[in-house]
Amino acid sequence: MPRPALPPSRSVRRLALHLAVPAAGLLLLTGCFSGSTGSAQDAAPTAGASAGTGDARIRIAHLQPPRSGFSPLTDDAFKMARWSNIEPLVVLDDNGDAQPLLATAWSQVDPTTWRFEIRQGVTFHDGQPLTTDAVVASLTAAAAASPPPRILDGVQLTAQVDPAAPQEAVLVRTAAADPLLPQRLSSPQLSIMSPAAYPSGGGQVNPVRHGTGPFVLTAVNGTSSATLDRFDGYWGTKAAASGIDASFVPDGTARAAALRTGTADIVEAVPAGQASLLDPALLHEVQMPRTNTLYLNTASGVFADPAARAAARAAVDAQTIVDVVYEGRADVAKGLLGPALPWSADRPQRTQAAAPAGGGNGRVITLGTFTDRAELPEVAVQLQAQLEAAGFVVQQDVREYAQIEADALSGKFDAFILSRATVLDSGDPVAYLASDFSCAGSFNISQFCDPAVDAAIAAASSTPAGPQRRAAVLAAEKLILEADAAVPMLHERVLQGEQPGVTDAARDPRERALVTPSTTVGAASS
């Protein structure tokens, strides 16, 4: 049983919630932060303006726009978590262990049932109280979603109010024993929302004014911006800043310019290629559990042939990509899991097929990636040269992520370059392996299906947390890499930009926290 409820410390709260500009890019940037779009954001305080001494609003330039209208059941939940807007039952500490948040304590009743005690005195942003019924409704909605949140891949989850303590606790069950259920429930995609967020007839979940965090989401301007205000009814430590003005700036050069010119206080993912043009004091390097991987389509096309996959893997020169594209600000991958998970260095040796003498033999392949991460198109250029040197004929298809994801997941590419977080959801890589490399995985870009790998992932999933589970994870990774379903190239280090006056912004490897209750903007960045 975990430790009893504790006051929310700064570190736990952080985890609850990670030079020329083209004319068009500069105009876009100006529009993003000016508040002159004619939207609901016009009513918000001017970005960077102070509503009182020491509580200036925080301006953020984000990497990717929302993909699903800020549905908390999708990856958009991670943006809301980074704003300290929504909260799940538990939060992960630096070691990946579950700590109390909206649940104050929990225990395992039997192999498939866990009991969670719900925090009392919590109010949703719409004024409704947090109840056990609301917790059950949120978890049930997530379990019934189509597709379900990635963290629930392969998990049949149900929730009910504890009949022995209906005002105090809920029972969460899984069809099979799940030793990591508390960690699983830390995912922002399983955050608890007000019952009013869920339309009675089904449909899109509405996050506006329906979370529990220290900042309330008050307005969303499509895929351009969002506005949040301090929630004075928050159950824990009140936010120091009066609000957040978030803009979505996919263009990396424009994000770097926002940092350089002071039009944003915090900037996500400054491109490595822009680092030399910026004041080093503004940049903070975070080693990430994120792997830049070349996924190979194992089900159809050229790479259905294992020999072709071996040729592609042998052709990849990751060190050149690190040096040329990332300017040394990345680590060459030795596996799918990187140095942000130190125990992954203990991986067993693997045996991989030798590349055939003919290499690519003139076969034509389509190589896809997306523009939202500024380095990936450059990685595609390097890879094209490397693969063509090995005898392949490469055709590139590069688009914004929202426009290319469906094609990637349906297997329309021979190869796809993806920057992938490996422990984003539960702090444990098993969910990532199941999602990307199991036969039933919902994010299986490689179209990979191997019963032996499924068995290895299942074995890892059923093993309790600790050294044995880590060894089982590495055993599954070994099988995936020996099949050449994916070629891990490098592990990223994210550059987070912060103006000199910013204090206590989270630098979170899991990309769950960014603005915390203690984050402030000083005079230097107002």
Keywords for this entry:
3 domains; 4-stranded antiparallel beta sheet; globular; D-Maltodextrin-Binding Protein, domain 2; Dipeptide-binding Protein, domain 3; 526 residues; 11-stranded mixed beta sheet; 19 strands; alpha+beta; 13 helices
Describe the protein:
The structure is a single chain. The chain is an alpha+beta fold. It has 3 domains: 10-86 and 204-280 and 495-525, D-Maltodextrin-Binding Protein, domain 2 (3-Layer(aba) Sandwich); 90-197, Dipeptide-binding Protein, Domain 1 (Dipeptide-binding Protein, domain 1), CATH 3.90.76; 286-493, Dipeptide-binding Protein, domain 3 (Roll). Helix content is 25%, strand content 21%. The protein has 13 helices and 19 strands. Strands 1, 8, 9, 10, 11, 12, 13, 14, 15, 16 and 17 form an 11-stranded mixed sheet that branches. It has a 4-stranded antiparallel sheet with strand order 4-5-7-6, with helices on one face. A two-stranded antiparallel ribbon has the order 2-3. Strand 6 (157-161) and strand 7 form a beta hairpin. The longest helix is centred in the C-terminal third of the chain and has 16 residues, at 467-482. The radius of gyration is 23 Å and the shape is globular.
